[in-house]
Amino acid sequence: MTSLQIAEITGKTHSNVMRDIRNILEQLEEKHKFNFELMFKITKLGNNAERKDPYYLLTKKDCLLLASGYDANLRAKIINRWEELEENKRELSRKDLALMVLQAEEEKERLALEVQKKEEEKQAIIEETKPAVVFTECVKNASTNILVRDLAKLITQNGYTIGEYRLYDWLVENKYLIRHKRWSRSKNKYLFDYTPTQRAAEMKLFFVTENAIMQGGNPTFIKHTCCVTGKGQVYFLNKFKSLAAV
Predict the structure, then answer these.
(1) With 60 as the cut, is the pLDDT of residue 130 above it?
(2) Which residues, by range, are in coiled-coil regions (predicted)?
């Protein structure tokens, strides 16, 4: 409470209240046990001037000490005012507490909904990818190797359109296969054989079969047939799936 408020409550002039406080401070031996903080009310005047009017900020203990020098009616007014202030403070505290409880409940509900939403999204992803996972496991564990043209069909069925020759070109350009050019007498044209690169061989993406081509009862050359392993099928399906998503 301020000395200005005390003046208003008691009907005394503020200058008289200030005088009473100064008298107390002059007589008081244990000043350190009280507050009586001197403040200034600043009033703006013209020409950038200002006026500083002093007043005191009092604690409840300060007010009771000051009121002890007044008559019973003035003391009662000061005490009643303090009770009003404390009751308002308690009421505010109760409201703050109720608000905090309400906010905590709302936050708890929000977090629960957030957890539920994340769980639903997680389940949706699991359900969405379940067929792909099953397919991947089947392919990975399959003992059957397939030709590159069959891999091209498989990739196309899974969302990325590509033919056999384009797939061969892609595998060569991306250093999975090495292209070997040879002349075919029977077909009277150049043909291509493919073998895995060192990297692809180490990754076990391909399986190569060798067939001896016979002419006149004698082997003339070895034909390599490059097949895609189960692991390779999974690898390239995922690779082209990521390309399709770009």
Answers:
(1) no
(2) 75-128
Listing DSSP states for 222-244 in one string gives EEEEEEE-HHHHHHHHHHHHHHH
Segment 99-125, tens digit of pLDDT: 766 777 777 788 888 888 888 888 776
User: Can you say how many angstroms the Cα of residue 129 is from the centroid of all Cα atoms in its chain?
Assistant: 24
pLDDT, tens digit, 9 for 90 and up, residues 53-91 = 999 988 888 888 888 888 888 778 888 888 887 777 766
Q: How far is CA 82 from CA 117, 191, 206, 234, in A?
A: 52, 105, 90, 80
Instruction: Classify 200 as helix, strand or coil.
Output: helix
Q: DSSP for 114-133, please give it.
A: HHHHHHHHHHHHHHHHHHHH
Q: Cα 232 to the chain's mean position, in Å?
A: 36
Predicted TM-score (pTM) of the model is 0.41
Q: Which helix (H) or strand (E) holds 27?
A: helix 14-27
Buried b (16+ CB within 10 A) or exposed e, 132-164: eeeebeebeeeeebbebeebbebbeeeebebee
Question: What CA–CA distance (Å, rounded) separates 157 from 197?
Answer: 27
Let me know: does 66 contact 58? Beta carbons within 8 Å: yes
Element of type H or E holding 108: helix 72-141
